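RECORD TYPE: inverse folding
INPUT: structure tokens
STRUCTURE:
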């Protein structure tokens, strides 16, 4: 019965996250952190940051990848299935209902205004999640350097209207992180051998 309660709690939590998040996975990050880390304590903050890195680095939407990982962490394979289904279900239901009345739905002026308002909220949610993660980031010199370089490149290329995939930022940052970790690891190992 305890496992059933845990799965039900996981389903309901992820369903709410999926239901009240507009704008995709990045807008979902702040809500996920608030629900899973701060309110329910299902995972630690450091683990949440690590899960975001893994979810972003693996193929597929960040929301689905995050839900799968969190579900697995909390209740194993069944938990990952439940969490993934729960986070995707609200979108599926809403899109299905909209598809039934799509043409009539778009012709309503009030709906158009609502979507414009939602766009502003999505921008805020993404910015808020990014700032929260940056505040809690372990600020080592390498992380600050990677952040500044990536941000500078992104802003510069955007202002120059150059199309540059964010995948390259992720790959480059991952390679820099591996190199920095390797240098640190071998330096500590060499220092340990000298003593």
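DESIGNED SEQUENCE:
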């Amino acid at each position: 019965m305890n496992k059933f309660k845990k799965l039900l709690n996981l389903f309901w939590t992820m369903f709410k996250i999926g239901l009240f998040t507009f704008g995709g996975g990045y807008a979902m990050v702040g809500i996920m952190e608030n629900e899973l880390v701060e309110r329910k304590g299902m995972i630690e903050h450091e683990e949440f940051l690590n899960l975001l890195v893994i979810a972003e680095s693996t193929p597929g939407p960040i929301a689905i990848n995050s839900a799968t990982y969190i579900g697995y962490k909390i209740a194993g394979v069944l938990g990952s299935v439940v969490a993934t289904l729960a986070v995707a279900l609200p979108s599926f239901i809403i899109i299905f209902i909209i598809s039934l009345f799509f043409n009539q739905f778009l012709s309503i002026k009030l709906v158009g205004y609502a979507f414009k308002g939602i766009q502003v909220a999505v921008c805020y949610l993404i910015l808020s999640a990014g700032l929260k993660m940056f505040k809690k980031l372990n600020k080592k010199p390498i992380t600050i350097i990677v952040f500044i370089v990536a941000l500078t490149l992104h802003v510069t290329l955007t202002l120059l209207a150059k199309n540059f995939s964010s995948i390259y930022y992720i790959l480059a940052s991952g390679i820099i992180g591996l190199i920095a970790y390797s240098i640190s690891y071998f330096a500590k190992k060499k220092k340990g051998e000298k003593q």
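NOTES: Residues 55 and 114 are 30 Å apart (CA to CA).
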